[in-house]
TrEMBL record:
Keywords: Membrane, Transmembrane, Transmembrane helix, Transport. May be involved in both secretory and endocytic intracellular trafficking in the endosomal/prevacuolar compartments. It comes from the Eukaryota. It comes from Manihot esculenta. This is PRA1 family protein. The chain crosses the membrane at residues 21-39, 45-63.
């Protein structure tokens, strides 16, 4: 193991990417916090979207009219009968 001689390193400051260590740590932690905050907000938005979509689907299924196609066909036939009566006048 090599022996390091000279002045103690307590007076030297550490530079990372040309910035003092404190500035680099602050910028890096701020960037990491922003990225985590942004992605968690996006995930929260996606969870709300899925939840609302599921709620609307269940609500629509619960108030849906049963046998809607048959009711529309009946309405169409009634409308044609009334239309024929008006055209005969």
């Amino acid at each position: 193991m090599p022996v390091i001689r000279g002045r103690p390193s307590s007076k030297k400051s550490v530079f990372i990417c040309g910035q003092p260590r404190g500035v680099f740590v602050f910028l890096f932690s701020a960037a990491a916090s922003f990225i985590l905050w942004f992605t968690s907000g996006t995930l929260l938005f996606a969870l709300w979207a899925f939840g609302i979509g599921f709620l609307v689907t269940v609500l629509h299924a619960s108030v849906r009219t049963p046998n809607l196609k048959a009711r529309l066909n009946t309405f169409r036939e009634e409308f044609r009968a009334v239309w024929r009566n008006y055209s005969e006048l």
